[in-house]
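Q: Predict the bound structure with iron/sulfur cluster.
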Amino acid sequence: MSIVSITKASGDDEQGVAKAVREAIRELGGIADIVKPGYLVIVKPNLVAVPSERVTGAVTRWEVSKAVADVVRELGAKPVIAESSSAGVDTEKVIEKTEYDTLRKQGYEVVDLKKTPAVTVKVPGKGKVFDEMKTWELVEKADAIISVPVLKTHDQTEITLGMKNIKGLISDAHKKDFHRYGVLDGVVDMLLAFKPVLTVIDGTCGQEGIGPIFGTPVHMGLIVASKDLVAADAVGGRIMGYDPKDVPITVRAAARGLGEMDLSKIEIRGVPIAEVERRFVRASETKIEGLPPFDLLFDEGACTGCRNTVISAIMDMKNQNLESRLENKCVVCGPLDESKLPKDMPKEKIVLVGICTKHLEERGVFVPGCPPNNIYVVRGVVGEEVANRY
Ligand code: SF4
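A: Predicted complex:
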């Protein structure tokens, strides 16, 4: 039977968080069976993009990653905290904002994978979407991977927990392929190549609403851990009020034999789910207040880079009192079919974000980039002349 542990942190301070992480791992019977002396172990936090504050539930707080790295060290293995943020994002800037750089000063290895040599590895067996993964030498060399995500909702995949977190081990160009060719089965293919031996979810502060970056922080004070990556996500999702059957990555990973999603077959140790569950607001239920009527067309193939850029550009417009310029416009993201564009809309009303929309260039204001910088999206919406006044 798969086991998932849930523990409560006594506080947000380093000691309180570390104690909860250690307790969660102890409830699983320890990890000496999966982390052996001499192993190179990648501890993979979620550092997807630069958050507005250090702790907003968008990224894994360093206290959790450090506690996991300490347990790995105590077993005689070598932990390396490694991440590549979403496509187009400078990982170093995320490391700085989230204060992971302070761990470097304490002697922990914190690696921006984007600065390391790349390599291509085969997906064992046959992938549904990909037969190979473009990754980094360090990932290929690792003896074990530990996924350390944060508890949050996602605008495209309902939630993002331990399984989707592993996408940070993939090169930027290849991350974009996932959104073009199929993020759901693509993630499962990726997990066949890089299956984490342990998931430790940072549920100290989660995030609801428009994840993965712009949601609302939710203080939960929890750590959730499992050696079964599907069970960890099933329970993490359940804590946020999701039936595992409603979470597409969980369903596909379970169907392809990566783990257990049936809650009746998962043993919960520590705190019962019923004691800590809280329904998180879904991304689809969230509206950015105070915006005029306009259309936002996110094609299925639009990746996190462009989705975040567009939401972030809209926030920038609000902060500069420019949101009225969105009125009756249509902002398009990803490789959308032309038939889905509003018919007879004048060219100046359609804003095409990113190179994936280049084929529609004749129909709107094209904003190049992959993803483009926010400022160019704002300019595409408000026009050069207005933008130059700000
Ligand atoms: S343009 Fe945007 S949606 Fe297209 S690949 Fe680049 S980041 Fe992804």
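A: Residues 62 and 141 are 24 Å apart (CA to CA).
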